[in-house]
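Dear colleagues,

As part of the handover before I leave the project, I'm documenting each prediction I ran so the next person doesn't have to rerun anything. This entry is a single chain, and its sequence is reproduced below.
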Amino acid sequence: MNSEEEFYDAETGLESDDSCEVSFKDALVFGSEEARDGRATQENGVWERRKTLPAKMISRNNYSVWSILKKCIGMELSKIAMPVEFNEPLSFLQRMSEYMEHTHLIHKACSLSDSMQRMQLVAAFAVSAVASQWERTGKPFNPLLGETFELVREDEGYRLISEQVSHHPPVSAFHAESLKQEFEFHGSIYPKLKFWGKSVEAEPKGVMTLELLKHKEAYTWTNPMCCVRNIILGKLWIEQYGTVELVNHRTGEKCVLTFKPCGMFGKELHKVEGYIQDKRRKKRRVIYGKWTECMYSVDPKVYEAFKKTDKKTAGESRRQKPEHSCEGEEADEMPEVQETVTVIPGSALLWRMTPRPAHSAQMYSFTGFALTLNELEPGAERTLAPTDCRLRPDVRAMENGDMDTASAEKERLEEKQRTSLRERNKDEEEWTTRWFRQGTNPHTGAEDWLYAGGYFDRNYADCPDIY
C-alpha cells in the first residue's frame, strides 16, 4: 500500500468512535427512569450522551398522508399544515446540524498540505452531510420564526448556532466554527418541497461554504435533490440525485459529483460518482461510492481501465433475468440492492458511514448522532437561549411519546406565530433577526445570511418569546 492509500485507510482514525455501535440490549430500557429523562450515566456519575429516545417511534399505519396531499399535486408544501404523526421529534434546525456528524473529515483536511488531498476530503464531507437522510422518512418540525439551535461539541472541536431567519419563504441559517480556529462552515437553506402524486421532492436551495482558515481556502457547493418515494402505497424509500459542484475558490480546483437516480434495474441506487479537476481542467482523481455507505478516490487512468473490464462482465449479466425496475409499471418499487461498493484496486478510502444503532428502526431511523440532538443536559436550561428548539414543547412531547400533547402544542405554537405576525403587520413593524444578517457571500457574490456574532456571549435579553 502506498503512502496516499495508507493515509485514507479506515484504520487511520478517520472513522468516528464506537459510541453509535450499540445493541438493543445495551440501550436504555423504555419506561425506566433514565429513559424518561433520555440520559444514561457512567459508573463514576459523569453524564454520557444518550443512546436512545425516551419512547419508541409511533406507528403511522392508521394515518393517510394521501388524504392531505391529494389536492396538492405540483404545489410547494411549505404552507401546508401536516399532522404531527408524520413528523420526527427534531426541528429542521437540528436536522440541519447533522451536516456536522463527520466533522473529523474537515479536521483531517485542515492538517494536509496538498490542496488535491484536501479537496478529496471536502468532497467526502459534502457526501457525508446527506448520509443521515437514508431511511429518514419522517418530516422534521418546521422551525418557528426566531427559533435557534446551538450545538457545542468540545470532543469534536466545534460549536454551531442556527436561526430561523425567515418564515415565508422558510429560510434557516447556520454557522459552525472550530474551537481552535481551524475552519468555519456556514450556509442558509430554503427547502422547497413539492408533491408529485407518488413522491415528495425536496430541493435544498442554498449554498454551503466551508472555509479552511489556515490554508485561506473557501469551498462552496449546493446539496443534491432528495425524493421520498411511495407516498401513497408501499414502503417509503429515499433517493438523492443531481449534480453537486464543489469549487476551491483559491486554487480553482473543482470537484463535480453526480448523485445518480435509481435508473433501470436499481443498479444506480445510492451511487455517487465524479472527478476532481485542477485549474487547467485536467482530471486528477475520480471519486466514487454510495452516499449511504462510503466514498473512495482513485487515479482516473486506473478507473477507466477498470470500467472497460467491468463493462464486458456487465454486458453478459444483462442477458440474464432483470431485477426490479425503478421505471415503468413498478416505478416506485424499492430495489433490493444488496451489493456494496465494488472497490477498484488502488483506491483510497475517504469516508465510511458510521454504523447506526441496532434499534435505529424503532427510533425514527436516527443515527447515533441524531439521537443526541434533542437531549437536555443537566443545567442546560440555564444557559440555552430561550428560543432553542430543545425547549419546544411539541417536539419534546413527541419525543416522549405523548402525541396528543404534541399535536395540541404544535397547533398552539403555530397560532401564536400567526398572532405575532398580525400584530407586527398592524403596527407596521418588521421582523428583526437576532444572530444573522443578510449580506453577500464574499466567495460567490450571491445574497446569503451571515452570522453576526455574539451568540456565545450568552446575552439573550432581546430574544423573542416564541414558545
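The longest strand covers residues 183-195. The CA atoms of residues 68 and 81 lie 9 Å apart.

All the best with the project,
I.
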